[in-house]
Amino acid sequence: MNYFRKIVPPIKCQGIKTKLVPWISAIIPEDFDGTWIEPFMGSGVVAFNIRPKKAILADTNPHLISFYRSLSEGIINAGLVRDFLQDEGEKLLKSDGEYYYTVRDRFNSEGNSLDFLFLNRSCFNGMIRFNRKGGFNVPFCRKPNRFAPALITKITNQVQAISDAMSIGEYEFHIQPFSDTIKYANENDIIYCDPPYIGRHVEYFNGWDEHEELKLEDALSSQNCRFILSTWHHNDFRRNSFIDSLWSKYHILTREHFYHVGGKEKNRNPMIEALVTDFEASFNKNVKPIPEQLQFFTSEA
Ligand SMILES: C[S@@+](CC[C@H](N)C(=O)[O-])C[C@H]1O[C@@H](n2cnc3c(N)ncnc32)[C@H](O)[C@@H]1O
Description:
Elements: H1 21-26, E1 35-38, H2 45-50, E2 54-59, H3 62-72, H4 78-94, H5 99-110, H6 113-122, H7 149-167, E3 170-175, H8 178-182, E4 190-193, H9 210-221, E5 226-235, H10 241-245, E6 251-259, E7 269-277, E8 298-300
Parallel strand pairs: 1-2, 1-4, 2-3, 4-5
Antiparallel strand pairs: 5-7, 6-7, 6-8
Helix pairs in contact: 3-6, 4-7, 5-6
S-adenosylmethionine binds at residues 13, 15-17, 39-40, 42-43, 45-46, 59-61, 64, 177-178, 194-196, 205-206, 208.
């Protein structure tokens, strides 16, 4: 498995692991030849960059899965995305931004994947947030000219890159809770879990509490393949207590990752990220590029 040109997904989501992909890639055992299973797919950035031959990607958020499923089935493609964003972007501009709310209402009654992409790329802070009834409720980013030609080209290329990546592998998509996805695992597979971080995101498709974390550990410990779990280790103020209570019996790697809150340097919150594995990770030399950051990785027994 190699690490090629970086793929940036067209859909953004909270907790996206773009910056952690080289690290995750580097610890995938060289003998891995099974299915890559992601019960918490989110944007899919990890799977699409790892590029396994076979992948099962799942999430409880139906809109993320429907988007990628439609792409894999050819119901949407890069050309359709470009035309759609050109037409709708023009209406957005002419309405001085008001049209965003027409699309949002339409999406909340019909759940169309192209509307989801439109909202995801023009809403405030690129957030995916739903109210208690499951309605998308993020306001507009206030840039009526949001879909300028350069951005449309960028998104179209991102969609094409995902289509290309999917065309050389077998990808399955499922809308379901993690416990159902973990059950698919066979001996040669790897399960990569990236659940919502406890206490950080709480909303309709993204609730997570102690009960869920315990259930996840139970499900992972009951299957017979290898797993990698992303979680947070500590920040300047707190330590993740589950590292010591629940995950300490596994292998734990740590490194620093900055989460941006707003655009200002002073608002950056350094967060020490952890990867928990049920195998001893050795850094795979076949992964290109071998990240220079490896020298900063430390291992906790
Ligand atoms: C931190 S995000 C994953 C980010 C992803 N790794 C990426 O890089 O884009 C967590 C995801 O878990 C999903 N999720 C939350 N609760 C879930 C559950 N019980 N079962 C499956 N997915 C869940 C959310 O919808 C969200 O997309």
